[in-house]
Predict the 3D structure of the following.
Amino acid sequence: MGFPTQRPRRLRQSETWRRLTRETRVTCDDLVYPLFIVPGVRVRHPVESMPGVAQLSVDEAAVEAKRVLAAGVSAVILFSAPDHKDPQASAFLDPNGLVPLAVRAIKAACPEMLVWTDVCLCSATDHGHCGHVLADGTIDNDSSIETLAKVALNHARAGADAVAPSDMMDGRVAAIRRLLDAHGRANTPIVSYAAKYASSFYGPFREAADSAPAFGDRRSYQMDPANAREALREVELDLEEGADLVMVKPAGPYLDVIRRVREQVSVPVVAYQVSGEFSLIKAASQRGWIDERAAALETLTAIKRAGADLIISYFAPDVLRWQRS
Ligand code: PBG
C-alpha cells in the first residue's frame, strides 16, 4: 500500500513535527573541544588556516576553558606546540611542560571540565614524526611506545582525565596501560585513536600544532584511506590492549567506518571532525558559498547518525551557542 495512503511528508509539515520525529540529536554531552597550548603568557595567536581557533598560552587556555564550559562544552582535548624540539621529544616528558601546566590550570579554573590530553611525539620532535626515527629514516615502533607511555604518565600525573594516543604505533595502548597501572593511575581511561587514517585533511592542524613532518609522510604508521576492514582489526587490537574508548579519524569522509566500528564494539566510539573538515566549511562560508551554521550542524548530525557517541570538533562551542539561539 503506497501513495496516496502513504505520505511521509505528513510528519514533516511543521518544525514541531520535525522535532518530535527527529532520530538524531547533537547535544552538549556529545562534543569535545580541542585546545592548542603554546609557551608564553597572555598569548592568543590566531591559527590562520582555522578561522576562530587560536593557539593559547596556559593562562589563556584556562580562560578559554571557562568560556566554553559556559557555552555547554563538558570536555576538552589538549595539544601543545613547545618551542624546544629534539629527537627524544623531551619537552613532553617535562612534568612542568605545557600540557601538564595547562591540565592543572584548567582543572583549577573549572574542576568539572573533563580534560583529555593528546599523546603523540610529533610536535616535540625535531623531525615532526609521531615516533622515534632511526638512522635509515624509518620509525622505531618499540622504543616509541616506551616514550609514549612516559608522556601519558606525565599527563596523568598532572591530573588529566583521559589520555588519547594518536601516534598509531603498534602496542602503544598496552604500553601506556602497563605504565599507568604500575604508577597508581589505574583509573585513568585511554581514548585510543584506533582507526586513524593518513589523511590530507590534517593540513590546518599541523599549522596549529607545528607538527608537520620534516621529511616523508605518515603512511608507514597511519592507515590507508582505502581500508575499512583494517580499521576493525585496529579497533579490536586496541580493545584487547585495554582501550576504554576508540576513535575513528577523520570523521566526515569515514562515516562507513564509524558505522562498522559502532556495530562491532560495545565501548563508546569517538569520531574526530578534523581541522580540514572544519576549515573547508569555514572557507566556503567566508566566501558566501555555504551557510556555516547549517553545514556544521549537518556534518555533526551525520557523524552522530553514522554511530559516533562522541565527536571532537572545532565547532563545539559555536554549535551549542547556535542551538540556543
Ligand atoms: C598528531 C595529531 C594530528 C591530529 C591530531 N593528532 C595530526 C597528524 O597526525 O598529522 C590531526 C587533528 C586535526 O587535523 O584536526 N599525531
